[in-house]
Amino acid sequence: MTYKSLWSSDKWFVSPYNFVEDITKNFKLPEKIIIHDTTLRDGEQQAGVVFRKNEKIEIAMALDDAGIHRIEVGMPAVSREDFEAIKETAKQGLKAMVMAFVRCLKSDVDLALKCEVPGVVMELPSSRHLIHYAYKWDEEKAINSAVEAVEYAKSHGLFVTFFTIDATRAELDFFRKVVEAVHNHMDTLTFADTFGVCLPWAISYFMNKIKEFKKPIENIPITILV
Question: Over 50: is that where the pLDDT of 222 sits?
Answer without folding.
Answer: no
